Amino acid sequence: MRIRAVTNEDRQLALLWLAAAVSAVALRPVWLALVPSLRPCVFRALTGLPCPTCGTTRAATAFLNGELTAAFAANPLAALAGLVFVAGAPLAVAWTMARKKLPLTTGPLPVWARITAISLIGLNWVYVIVFS
């Protein structure tokens, strides 16, 4: 794997990520107040089956309430994404401020990474279908 030096743009992006994560957590009361007004899943209403993202609202609500187990039970991939979003931001800032190296990404993701991502989405969907 090739690596590259951290740039000012990388540090700015990490700080922006941190600002977004802090804002999302700080706006917790707003998010929780909006949940009741969200519409039900159209895919589920039409097919009777949950879509791959069904349970994301329940996962986000549980996550914002500090109930990680409930968040992962509702939709594991959505809960993991929320955890990475919030926990990854300060790590990204620390990493870039320490001037650590970053991987050099050029072109599309390797085939193994794309297959892994698609497989995780598929497995998560199976989980949501079975356990919702």
Describe the structure.
- The longest helix has 22 residues.
- The protein is globular, with a radius of gyration of 18 Å.
- The chain is mainly alpha-helical and 132 residues long.
- It contains 7 helices and 2 strands; from the N terminus they run E-H-H-H-H-H-H-E-H.
- The N and C termini lie far apart (40 Å).
Query: Which percent range describes the beta-strand content?
Result: under 5%
Please compute the radius of gyration using only Cα atoms.
18 Å
| Mean pLDDT figure | 93
Tell me, briefly, the overall form. Answer: globular
Distance N to C terminus: 40 Å
Q: What topology, given as strand order, has the largest sheet?
A: 1-2
Task: Please name the defining characteristics of this protein.
2 strands, 7 helices, mainly alpha, 132 residues, globular, two-stranded antiparallel ribbon
Task: Set out the fold topology.
Blueprint: E1 3-4, H1 8-26, H2 28-34, H3 42-47, H4 56-64, H5 68-74, H6 76-97, E2 102-103, H7 111-131
Helix pairs in contact: 1-6, 4-5, 4-6, 5-6
Quick recap:
The chain has helices at residues 8-26, 28-34, 42-47, 56-64, 68-74, 76-97, 111-131; strands spanning 3-4, 102-103. The protein has 132 residues and is mainly α.
